[in-house]
Specification:
318 residues, 2 domains, 26 strands
C-alpha cells in the first residue's frame, strides 16, 4: 500500500524474481534478458510436489528488454494487497495526485512594549510645567518633592520595543490520489511458445489487462501498447508566506494606577488616580505594573507551493 503524507514517500520496487509463490508453483515476474531480449522464467525453490502453475490460463508476450512483468494492477483510494496468482509486489505508485492550496491566516497577539520609567510632571494648576522627576520601581513607595501644587504622571514607551507576536494559522489539506500496486508471480514459460509466458487470471479487485512497467518515462512496447503514468514519489511544498505583525500608526500607550498618600513613606492614604491625569501633588505614592494598549496589523499571508508526483514510472498494458 502506497502511503503518502505531506512528506515524500519513495518505495524501492521489490525484486520479485526472488520471491517464492505461496502456492509452491514455479513463479515470479519475468524480466527480459538484456543479452538475448527473450524472457526468462524464475525458478525459486519450488514445492517438489507441484507440477506447475495451478491457474495458468493464457499465454502473453514476455516483457521486452528492461521491462518487468507481466503484472496485475490493483488500484483504489487504498491499493489492494497482492493475491494469488500475482503474489509479489513489483512496484507501489500513485496517480491522479492532487491537493488544495494551503489555508493561510495571520493574526496578532497581545502587544508588548517597554514602558520605561514613570515621569511626574509638576505644574501650577495643571498648566505651565514647573519641573519633572522620574521614578523606577513598581509597587515601591516614592516620596515626591513637588515644585507646584499639581502633578501629571505619565509613561513614555521606549521606542523600538513595540511588538505583537504573530499567530499563523496554517492548514495543509490532505492530498488525494489513486494508489496503485503492481503485482507479479505465477508464470510458466514451458506451456507457451517462444517469447511468451503463461499467466493466471488477475485476482478479484484487480484490473483484467496485464501490464509491464519500468521506472522513468518510456515509449510503450508494441506488445503492451496502452500507456499510463504513475509516480513512486510525491513532492508537496504547499506552504504559506510569512505571518508578521506591524504596529499601527497610532502606536502604543502605557497606563497605570497610582495610590496616593498625604505623608511621606506612603502614610495617610488619599485614594488613587490614573496616569495622564492632573491632580494635587501627593507627599508620596506607589504605582502598579503598567498595562499596554495598542494594536498591530497582520501581514496578508498567501498560500504558496503545490503538490505533484515525481520519480515517474511508465506502465504499459495490453
Amino acid at each position: 500500500m502506497l502511503v503518502v503524507s505531506t512528506a515524500c514517500f519513495n518505495p524501492d520496487p521489490v525484486d520479485i524474481q526472488e520471491t517464492d509463490s505461496p502456492t509452491g508453483s514455479s513463479s515470479g515476474a519475468v524480466t527480459s534478458d538484456p543479452a538475448t531480449g527473450s524472457g526468462t522464467s524464475v525458478d525459486p525453490s519450488a514445492d517438489p510436489t507441484s507440477s506447475g502453475p495451478s491457474s495458468c490460463e493464457v499465454c502473453v508476450a514476455s516483457p521486452p528488454e528492461g521491462w518487468t512483468g507481466p503484472l496485475a494492477i490493483g488500484a483504489g483510494e487504498t491499493a489492494p494487497s497482492c493475491a494469488s496468482p500475482f503474489t509479489a509486489v513489483a512496484f507501489e505508485a500513485a496517480q491522479d495526485i492532487a491537493g488544495a492550496d494551503a489555508s493561510c491566516e495571520c493574526s496578532c497577539g497581545e502587544p508588548t512594549v517597554d514602558c520605561g520609567e514613570l515621569s511626574m510632571r509638576y505644574s501650577t494648576a495643571c498648566a505651565g510645567v514647573a519641573g519633572a522627576e522620574s521614578f523606577v520601581g513598581v509597587d515601591t513607595c516614592h516620596d515626591t518633592d513637588p515644585d507646584g501644587p499639581t502633578v501629571t504622571p505619565f509613561f513614555t514607551p521606549i521606542a523600538g520595543t513595540e511588538s505583537c507576536p504573530p499567530v499563523a494559522d496554517v492548514d495543509i489539506p490532505a492530498a488525494t490520489m489513486t494508489e496503485l500496486v503492481l503485482c507479479g508471480g505465477g508464470f510458466d514459460q514451458e506451456s507457451c511458445g517462444s517469447g511468451e509466458v503463461c499467466v493466471g487470471a488477475a485476482p478479484d479487485g484487480f484490473e483484467a489487462a496485464l501490464c509491464v512497467a519500468q521506472e522513468g518515462e518510456h515509449e510503450c512496447p508494441a506488445e503492451y501498447p496502452n500507456a499510463r503514468s504513475a509516480f513512486t514519489d510525491v513532492a508537496d511544498d504547499r506552504r504559506c508566506t510569512a505571518c508578521n505583525c506591524e504596529p499601527d500608526a497610532a502606536g502604543f500607550e502605557c497606563a497605570s494606577e497610582l495610590a496616593l498618600f498625604g505623608a511621606g513613606g506612603c502614610e495617610g492614604p488619599l485614594g488613587s488616580e490614573p496616569t495622564d491625569t492632573c491632580f494635587d501633588s501627593p507627599a508620596s505614592f506607589t504605582f502598579a505594573e503598567p498595562t499596554v494598549t495598542g494594536s498591530c496589523a497582520p501581514t496578508n499571508t498567501q498560500p504558496t507551493g503545490s503538490i505533484a508526483g515525481e520519480d515517474p514510472i511508465t506502465i504499459c498494458c495490453q
